[in-house]
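Sequence and structure are no longer studied apart. To make this concrete, we show below a single chain and its fold as tokens.
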Amino acid sequence: MRIAENIISLQLKEMPLMKPNRFIMLLSITLVSLSAILFSIQYLVFRDTRDTFFYLFQDIAFLPMQVMLVTIVLDRIMRITEKRERLTKQNMVIGTFFSEMGAELLKYFSSVDPNIESVRENLVIKGSWTDKDYKAASIHLAAYQPGIAIDKVDFEKFKNTLIGHRVFLLGLLENQNLLEHERFTDVLWATFHLLEELMYRKDFSKSPRSDLEHLAGDMKRAYQNLICQWIDYMQHLKISYPYLFSLALRTNPFDPTSKVEVAGK
């Protein structure tokens, strides 16, 4: 077995220097030759061809079943590995979104939401929260109907803020890793739709109340999707990246008492 491992290791080191088909052919020839050598040694030692061929054909008889089992197991392992890699990449992109603009949007939305106090306890996350706490908060927030106080919204300033992130948003919408993440895709589309609606308005001082209420409805859609995604993201940070979770707690956009500085004991 050590001989086989050494031969395979040597071939793998040479793999970048040769074409894949050539490598497979050389590896196959090497392994078949090694089997022939081992069978020859067995015959020379035991001088019994009958048992040799009996066990050979017995192994061959079970080969299809072994191939089937190995294929199923390997396929399952590969699927799990690929799924984990996709989730990792997706969460990296989601993290970038919240760092770049998501947290800023949540802070602004909550500042003009007259109903925020009714759910603030579900948004001021504690480091001691368990999966049960996150699940309860997610269920509560999924049913939450946020409000937007139109008179408090500076639509022109808010539009310019979103325009500043337009290229970033377009880049996220083109990211293939996000195609399977429906919730975050909804966040992006709702945010981008809101941006487009605002960009078409040239003078908000001349917009009728009904039009501003329409824009407020678009803000609510983006806001609600953002809240649900943010809760999931915070739970992910706690499990996978405690140091990032610590910073996220200290910059919680829903906690008016949060401070980025680490408090002394």
